[in-house]
Each structure stands twice: as structure tokens, then as C-alpha cells.
Design brief:
The protein has nine helices and twelve strands.
Length: 372
């Protein structure tokens, strides 16, 4: 059974999905100084604002859970420009990727609660409030997923399984996260993970939400000039040497995820475009380089593939990173400016989570991507 990507939605520093993807393609950036947090490098007497990639308006004045709700509302409104969300019934599910609320300074859940329970408590508040604010009522199943950069892939994996088994007819798979509030910025600064003029090896914090609307049948005809995109496969893995381990990752776990999705898809019509969640940190750069070596060793045709790095335009957006990367990949396939008709999206969490997502155009609606 095919799983179609029927619609996209996004809320980001570069705007909704369509203009944001166009801006990323044009290498248009919109970083800004944080209005709340200044940091001083060792030896500096005067602190300077942290550079962030924040939404220009929609999240202004919101904080904590309210800021995540604002992001989710903007994403759903963007999805609603293509799909009638009010017409969705119990056959439509929601899979939502979120951060661990404690990592964002949110006091949710009991002190001895598991991460999964904290994420579910946050997810229910965010989703219930967002749907109420938009006047939407869905009776379909709802599931919530944590896991940093891999959270969205976990949500997508669950949604794909439910759709292929016939348990759902459609599903909204969404990720939202915010790294630009003071508690998170202070934590990143204390860990020396921020990109600064004096420390170019680091991340730029961002905030975003993004979603794919998946169906098992094409409900909406592709717009003129757009290709139809299908989700081929999602595979999850575990890295034995995550961030903070006694030795760095050798990239084998992430490469194994890529090998698994490529095997699941069978013979491809083109060499894939790679979409990486590399955010500028040294550990991720090392792992990414090792992944490229493993791919080349696995198949000589996978050498010198083109790669996109959405964090350059959107910043590191935590649990929403996979969703943003998937939207960027799918939009490139739809419009035909991706250099392939297949996109391989990677996700690497700070913990052991690893994932790969493979999407491509249908033969009936080929992309303008380059042939193999």
C-alpha cells in the first residue's frame, strides 16, 4: 500500500512551508539577536546577544507551553490551506513530536515520571489547546513522541505502520520545538554548544513547527507543475556511542538506517539527494563524514551525492528538525528543483536515537530531478 504525502505545513523563521522552502533554496537567512539572553565569551567583559532563528511575529509574547501552541496553530493553519481539516474524522490520526519538557524548563510531570509520560503530558496540552484555538474537533487516535532530532522520525514510523495496516486512512505527523527561550539558551551556553563569532563550531538555536499530512489514497490532485510524493520507508536505529560517550560515533548506526530504507524501497529511479540534520557541531560533523564513507563503501553509486543542510536556514529546531527537513525534501521533490526524484533524510539525536526517511516521486508524476 502506498503512503502519499498529501500536504505540508510549517511555521519557521522563514515563514510557512512554501515560502520557507523557497527562501531556503535561495539561501535567504533571517537570524536575529535574542532579546532575552546575552552571553560573554571567556575574557570578554561585555556580553553579546545570542544569535537565534526565531519566528518574526507568531510567537511574540508567548512563552513555555503557549509558545509551542502558537507554533502548532501556525502549522495546522498552513496544512489547512490545502486540506479541509474540519472534514477530518476518526479515521485521521495525529502523531506529534515534542521535546522533553524538562529540557525546555517546563515544569510538567512528576519528578519520578518517565520521559515518555512527560512528553505525553506536554503533547496533550499542546494539541488540545491548538485544536480548541482553531475550532477543530478530531476524534481519531493521538500519539506523542520524544527523542530530539529523531522524535519526528519515530512519529512518522508509527504513522506509516498505522496507515499501511489499514488502521488509519490519513494522519497528521507534526513536530514542534523551541530552543530560543532563556532556559534553553542558558543551558546551551553553559555547555558551550552555541555558535558565536569566537566559536564557529556550534549550533544556532531556532524554533519551528512542521507537518506532513499522509494518506493512503491521493485525495487532492497535485497542483499544476507539482509531482506526487510517496513515503517509501522509515527506519530507526540505536547508536552505541551517543553524545557524551567515551568515544565518538563511527556513523555505522546511522548508515545502517540508510541502508535499511534503501533496501526497503527496492530499485530506485535515481541516486538520492541527502538531507542532513547536521547543525554545525563537531560531533555531528564527524558522524556525518563517517556516514558518507560507509555509504560509499556500501555502494559505489552513492559516492559524491548532493546534500542539503536545512539547519543553515532554520537553525537547530530540536524535535521539529526532522519535520522541517522532511518538508524541505518533499517540497523540492514536488516542485522538481531537487537534484533527484528521491530524497534520503537523516536524523541523529543527542542520545542514541538514529533514523532515516526515504521519500520520492511517483512514476505517474515524475519530478524534474536528475536521472541516475
Amino acid at each position: 500500500m502506498k503512503v502519499f504525502v498529501e500536504a505540508l505545513g510549517m511555521a519557521s523563521c522563514l515563514g510557512p512551508a512554501i515560502p520557507a522552502c523557497a527562501a531556503f533554496r535561495a539561501n535567504l537567512l533571517r537570524p536575529s539577536p535574542s532579546p532575552d539572553v546575552d552571553v560573554a565569551e571567556p575574557g570578554e567583559e561585555v556580553p553579546r546577544p545570542v544569535t537565534v532563528c526565531a519566528l518574526p511575529a507568531a510567537t511574540f509574547g508567548f512563552s513555555g507551553v503557549g509558545r509551542l501552541v502558537a507554533l502548532a496553530c501556525e502549522v495546522l493553519k498552513d496544512v489547512g490551506t490545502r486540506v479541509d481539516l474540519r472534514a477530518l474524522g476518526p479515521e485521521t490520526g495525529v502523531c506529534l513530536a515534542l521535546p522533553d519538557p524538562w529540557e525546555r524548563g517546563l515544569d510538567l510531570g512528576e519528578p519520578d515520571a518517565s520521559v515518555a509520560l512527560r512528553v505525553e503530558a506536554l503533547g496533550r496540552r499542546v494539541l488540545d489547546t491548538s485544536l480548541r484555538n482553531l475550532g477543530l474537533e478530531w476524534s481519531g487516535p493521538r500519539r506523542f513522541f520524544g527523542g530530539g532530532h529523531v522524535a519526528f522520525a519515530r512519529a512518522l514510523h508509527a504513522a506509516e505502520a498505522a496507515l499501511r495496516s489499514g488502521g488509519l486512512r490519513s494522519c497528521v505527523v507534526m513536530g514542534v520545538d523551541c530552543l530560543v527561550e532563556a532556559p534553553t539558551l542558558h543551558a546551551l551556553a553553559d555547555e558551550r554548544r552555541l555558535k558565536t563569532p569566537e566559536q564557529p563550531v556550534g549550533l544556532t538555536p531556532g524554533e519551528a513547527g512542521a507537518a506532513l499530512f499522509l494518506t493512503t489514497e491521493a485525495l487532492v490532485e497535485p497542483s499544476r507543475g507539482e509531482a506526487q510524493v510517496v513515503l517509501h520507508a522509515v527506519r530507526l536505529g540505536d547508536e552505541p556511542h551517543p553524545r557524551g560517550a567515551d568515544r565518538p560515533s563511527d556513523g555505522r548506526a546511522l548508515a545502517a538506517c540508510a541502508e535499511a530504507v534503501l533496501a526497503a524501497a527496492g530499485v530506485l529511479r535515481a541516486r538520492p539527494l541527502l538531507v542532513s540534520d547536521h547543525n554545525g557541531e563537531e560531533g555531528r560533523a564527524r558522524e556525518w563524514g563517517m556516514v558518507l564513507l560507509h555509504l560509499r563503501a556500501m555502494d559505489a553509486s552513492l559516492e559524491e551525492l548532493q546534500a542539503w543542510y536545512p539547519a543553515i536556514g532554520f537553525g537547530d529546531v530540536g524535535a521539529a528538525m526532522g519535520a522541517v527537513n522532511a518538508c524541505v525534501a518533499v517540497r523540492g521533490l514536488q516542485r522538481g528543483y531537487a537534484p533527484s526524484s528521491v530524497s534520503l533524510v537523516f536524523a541523529s539525536a543527542d542520545d542514541s536515537g538514529r533514523a532515516a526517511i526515504l521519500a520520492g516521486t511517483t512514476p505517474e508524476h515524475p519530478s524534474g530531478g536528475a536521472p541516475p
